[in-house]
């Protein structure tokens, strides 16, 4: 059988399959999102608060063995840090440090005595604390190495309209 005969046969089969599909009616397209969500449920965790942050840090590392080096900051303070070379979010984005208020920021920075940020981050993650993200950050700009801790409640705030926070 020649290549031309094979090509004509394939074209004929393809034409028949299109005609069959047209006769069968419309094709229903369904989303697998619901099925995926059922198969991969997300854990439900209570939001953390600033009191939870301090209590958790005391529980995990011991009272007086850690110190908070950053919390809420205004957008102007965030911009000033960026100008000095700190590793902040990109211009045009809102840092979780700038979400919330003085008493309940979306993120904290902390230093743990006698522990590298990497060791402290690993220990905090293993503790099962209700934080959405724990990152060991190196020195950048005026800031030394530290932990960056985002509260679960900040994820909810991030989803709020006009709050494109990400750090």
Task: Summarize this structure as a short list of keywords or feature phrases.
alpha+beta; 167 residues; 6 helices; 6 strands; two-stranded antiparallel ribbon; elongated; disordered C terminus; 2 domains; four-stranded antiparallel β-sheet
Question: How is this structure best described in words?
Answer:
The structure is a single chain. Helices cover about 40% and strands about 15% of the residues. The chain is an alpha+beta fold and about 170 residues long. The chain has two domains: about 5-40, no CATH class; about 50-160, no CATH class. The strands form two sheets. Strands 1-4-6-5 form a four-stranded antiparallel β-sheet. A two-stranded antiparallel ribbon has the order 2-3. A hairpin with a 2-residue loop joins β2 (about 100) and β3 (about 105). The radius of gyration is 26 Å and the shape is elongated.
Structural class category = alpha+beta
Strand/helix succession: HHHEHEEEHEEH
Shape verdict:
elongated
Query: What strand line-up does the widest sheet have?
Result: 1-4-6-5
Number of domains: 2
Count of beta strands: 6
Biggest β-sheet description: 4 strands, antiparallel
Q: Uncertain regions: pLDDT < 50 for 5+ in a row?
A: 42-47, 154-167
**What is the first-to-last residue Cα distance?**
63 Å
Task: Using the CA coordinates, give the radius of gyration.
Answer: 26 Å
Percent range of helical residues: 40-55%
Per DSSP, what share of the residues sits in E-state strands of 2 or more residues? 15-25%
Summed over residues and divided by their number, the pLDDT gives a mean of: 74
Number of helices: 6
